[in-house]
Amino acid sequence: MKNIIALLTLAVSTCAFGQVAIGKSAVTNTSVSLEFGDYVAGQGKGIIVPWVTSAGSVNGAQQGTIVFDTADKIMKYRKADGTWLNLTKNETTTIAGQAYDTTGAVNTTLQASLTERPVAKTAVGAPTATPGILVLEDANKAMVLPKVPSPHLNIVNPEPGMMVYDTATKQLAVFNGTVWSYWRP
To answer: What's the number of domains the chain is made of?
Structure first.
């Protein structure tokens, strides 16, 4: 019974204040809606964005939506004009005469037999009708990504669609199932 009361208290406080800390006791300030715990050496972790069979078939995708498209194995970001920006790419690069294939990779066999749950949604902040699995609803708060120095070295077994903030290079790092791609503002 105590566990149920504790869970209900957590759920109510999350809805009331619209702030969530995962892996730590509290968010760093009032402008944060979702924040992850600090990096611990040897235990690098990131978040995995939703996998979709085709970004183009995502109904009602809003500006700022991020998905991993399993059809072409590319992580994508929905722009204001309704188009998708590729955050990763598939290519073969030659360095010093050696060819490197950076094409994304993903194994969807586990998900193939599962049934979609189109109504599954968690909202942080004042709930709206915005579609999505995890929706940060507040207009004046942001998500702080998991912070990992050199994720290509410190995340031992990343999954396709993983995303972190690389504290060594100060860049967004996204994993396509084969290689990490880095984005600087």
So the answer is: 1
